């Protein structure tokens, strides 16, 4: 016959220890279940970015209308409620599973009896018991209630309980009656609020999240690409993104982004793409569909993605850069976000990412630049395209090494650096080419990227990129067929959580894309090599005011703009305010 008989000298310690942890586990599980219900749909990550959080984090449900009409932050209450209940390992089967409990401890026999005979104790995730940890009356009440439930289960199963034990239980119940009542009320309130959210939720399958950037920026000093001094004209502009994350199975993701903005590209003033601001979006605040893709699992370790528009390399391949926040976080320049060889990859197509064990991640993708155009020389397979293959190697924790290859046709655009690296745009704009006759190009790009977290607050990184491009036509005899070499490199240094959790101090030193060698002759003897070397030097400090508001001052210093020593150094300053919701 099942019989509960706690030794009288150990009963109080058991209730203060074993019951407490079991009860806390029950309350933690209960509140976590509530939080999971509020999440509505679990969403898998379509692409895994290292270190810095991306702009596509899960949204937070904010307001809950209570009975008296006031607004309360429901999820924050749940977080606070859950913080009082430590994460636990779950039911242990042997007292030896608890690393900080030994036979010499005064309560060892009581713990062993409860673990092995009554299964009424749990541990922490690190397999410790933490018997010396202080406890609150609420936590003790939670443990008491959980153990009462366990005793009721034993009685219902035909067991017996001594009158002495029952009397001690009655005394404890009377002492903690108020706390038990409060716990019950809190759970009832949570149930009511969850029911309210379910009745008033935006969608059962879709989460809405957003991001707004206010940016102040100015060219502080320097010359443009032609050696002319640039006037200092400060600007205030914005970029806005609204994103819908939809899941139909819990493992897939339909991602839709609407965007608008009026932040100008400074290349219109400087005459060079060097130092371009990372959140530039000069669209006159016209709202449009920027990105649309569908991500879905293929087996246990592979993710597939089909991109209808706005797809980019970082949607399926890691850029291996702590400072890459897609303009909203991290580096304030476009060059500082990632290796420029990634920029030609877009806009519609398909890709897969596969985890090959614990060390390797393989990404393969094909994106066409004019996929929605049915005209000859366009479309999914007859127009501009880029094909990417990348292997990320993580030999030890905190170290990621990326090996990247990209083949492109008619998409020779490095996104930053020397304008001469974009031959299609250059040739089409020549005075001798009034009809804008096209020159076809083909390129092969090779990149190595690295990010190494030396400690919790120090991350070093960098990359090197090389592109060999060839002209496949002469644009009606304006140029000869030939090739050119384009190089770029960068070293990065980041200090996460400096001064406060979420902060980031970052530095970037590198060379934006530079044409080092070319045998192509342009009309009028126009030079198509960069004779000098320009350096990109950048510093920023992202200060996290709240979980949803960050202020980032930054400065970008370009020596010898457009890789021309005759031009005075270019200095651009900016202050970025990012609001996430």
Give me the secondary-structure topology.
Elements: E1 3-4, H1 11-39, E2 63-65, E3 71-73, H2 74-83, E4 90-91, H3 108-118, E5 122-123, H4 137-156, E6 160-161, H5 163-175, H6 177-200, E7 206-221, E8 235-246, E9 253-263, H7 267-270, E10 281-282, E11 288-297, E12 302-309, E13 324-325, E14 329-330, E15 348-356, E16 360-368, E17 385-393, E18 399-409, H8 423-428, E19 441-455, E20 458-471, E21 483-496, E22 504-518, E23 536-544, E24 549-558, E25 570-580
Helix pairs in contact: 1-2, 1-4, 1-6, 4-6
Description:
By secondary structure, this protein is of the alpha+beta class. The chain folds into two domains: 3-200, no CATH class; 206-580, Beta Barrel (Porin). 20% of the residues lie in helices and 35% in strands. It contains eight helices and 25 strands. It has helices at residues 11-39, 74-83, 108-118, 137-156, 163-175, 177-200, 267-270, 423-428, and strands at 3-4, 63-65, 71-73, 90-91, 122-123, 160-161, 206-221, 235-246, 253-263, 281-282, 288-297, 302-309, 324-325, 329-330, 348-356, 360-368, 385-393, 399-409, 441-455, 458-471, 483-496, 504-518, 536-544, 549-558, 570-580. Strands 7-8-9-11-12-15-16-17-18-19-20-21-22-23-24-25 form a 16-stranded antiparallel barrel. A hairpin with a 7-residue loop joins strand 21 (483-496) and strand 22 (504-518). The protein is elongated. The two termini are 58 Å apart.
């Amino acid at each position: 016959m099942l019989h509960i008989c706690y030794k009288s000298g150990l009963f109080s310690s058991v209730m203060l220890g074993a019951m407490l942890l079991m009860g806390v586990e029950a309350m933690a599980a209960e509140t976590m279940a509530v939080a999971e219900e509020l999440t509505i749909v679990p969403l898998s990550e379509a692409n895994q970015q290292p270190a810095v959080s991306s702009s596509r984090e899960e949204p937070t449900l904010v307001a809950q209308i209570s009975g008296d009409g006031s607004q309360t932050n429901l999820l924050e209450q749940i977080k606070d409620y859950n913080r009082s209940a430590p994460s636990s390992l779950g039911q242990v089967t042997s007292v030896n599973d608890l690393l900080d409990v030994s036979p010499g401890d005064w309560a060892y026999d009581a713990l062993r009896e409860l673990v092995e005979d009554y299964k009424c104790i749990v541990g922490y995730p690190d397999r410790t018991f933490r018997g010396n940890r202080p406890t609150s009356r609420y936590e003790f009440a939670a443990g008491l209630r959980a153990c009462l439930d366990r005793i009721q289960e034993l009685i219902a199963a035909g067991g017996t309980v001594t009158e002495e034990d029952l009397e001690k239980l009655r005394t404890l119940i009377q002492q903690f009656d108020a706390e038990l009542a409060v716990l019950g009320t809190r759970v009832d309130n949570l149930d009511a609020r969850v029911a309210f959210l379910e009745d008033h939720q935006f969608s059962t399958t879709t989460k809405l999240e957003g991001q707004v950037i206010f940016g102040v920026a100015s060219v502080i000093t320097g010359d443009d690409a032609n050696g002319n001094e640039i006037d200092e004209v400060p600007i205030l502009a914005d970029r806005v993104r609204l994103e819908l994350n939809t899941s139909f199975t819990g493992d897939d993701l339909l991602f839709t982004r609407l965007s608008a903005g009026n932040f100008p590209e400074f290349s219109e003033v400087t005459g060079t793409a060097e130092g371009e601001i990372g959140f530039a979006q000069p669209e006159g605040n016209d709202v449009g569909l920027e990105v649309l893709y569908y991500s879905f699992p293929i087996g246990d370790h592979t993710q597939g993605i089909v991109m209808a528009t706005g797809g980019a390399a970082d949607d399926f391949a890691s850029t291996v850069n702590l400072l890459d926040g897609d303009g909203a976080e991290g580096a304030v320049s476009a060059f500082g976000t990632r290796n420029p060889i990634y920029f030609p990859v877009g806009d519609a197509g398909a890709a897969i990412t596969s985890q090959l064990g614990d060390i390797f991640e393989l990404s393969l993708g094909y994106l066409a630049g004019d996929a929605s155009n049915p005209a000859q020389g366009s479309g999914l397979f007859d127009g501009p395209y880029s094909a990417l293959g990348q292997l990320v190697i993580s030999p030890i924790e905190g170290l990621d090494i990326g090996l990247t290859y990209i083949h492109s046709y008619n998409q020779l655009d490095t996104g930053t650096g020397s304008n001469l690296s974009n031959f299609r745009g250059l040739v089409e704009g020549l005075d001798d080419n009034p009809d804008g006759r096209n020159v076809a190009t083909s390129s092969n790009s090779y990149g190595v990227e690295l990010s190494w977290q030396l400690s919790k607050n120090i991350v070093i990184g960098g990359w090197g990129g090389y592109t060999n491009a060839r002209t496949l036509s002469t644009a009606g005899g304006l140029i000869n067929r030939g090739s050119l070499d384009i190089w770029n490199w960068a070293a990065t240094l980041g200090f996460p959580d400096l001064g406060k959790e979420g902060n980031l101090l970052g530095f970037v030193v590198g060379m934006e894309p530079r044409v080092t060698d070319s045998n192509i002759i342009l009309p009028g003897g126009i030079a198509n090599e960069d004779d000098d070397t320009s350096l990109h030097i950048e510093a920023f400090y992202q200060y996290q005011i709240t979980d949803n508001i960050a202020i980032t001052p930054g400065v970008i210093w370009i020596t010898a703009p457009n890789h021309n020593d005759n031009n005075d150094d270019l200095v651009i300053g900016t202050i970025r305010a990012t609001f996430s919701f």
